[in-house]
Amino acid sequence: MNRYSLRNLLFLTICCDLGLFSKRLIAPAANILTDFMRIPGGIGTSFSLMFIIVAAELVPIFGCATLMSIIQSMIALSLGMVGSMGILSPIGYIVPGMVIDLIFLLSRKTDLGTDLTLTLANMFGAAAASLTANLIVFHLPGVPLALYVVVALASGAVCGCFAGVLAKRLRPVISASSADGLEEPSIPAANQAPKN
To answer: The pTM is what?
Structure first.
């Protein structure tokens, strides 16, 4: 945890909250489409993951997305926002976070580029969430499951593009706040000399 500065922790906390509660805001509209297709969801999760992906991009520390997912799952459990998974809902948060971290790790080793990385991370994170939910709760057969995953991938791609735009707009703000001295200033060595 000492790798994270106070500024980074505050930013991650804001992104955790936005990701968790934005899903509740978009769910009614998203459910109209998914109910029509007779699948459990997928769109709201993609939108929620967008904030985790932006945070993982701007705080490039391996494990960042998993850490945020764990925090989100704890908040969801404490507020009773467990959905259809019940007590197993933390698995539905943590698995996509781990997938996102793996995508970012792959990107840093292969230099995929920011936009492609964010899009792939959102796509595969959303697909992992869908497959996890299906394994634990829904048990959909072939065609509905395929449609469920395709919707998650498609909405993940769209939200990944939005994540790229958001990350580009926030990066100068995050960088400027660091340069302006939000970190604790170091004490000059001359001031640390013992007085006679």
So the answer is: 0.82
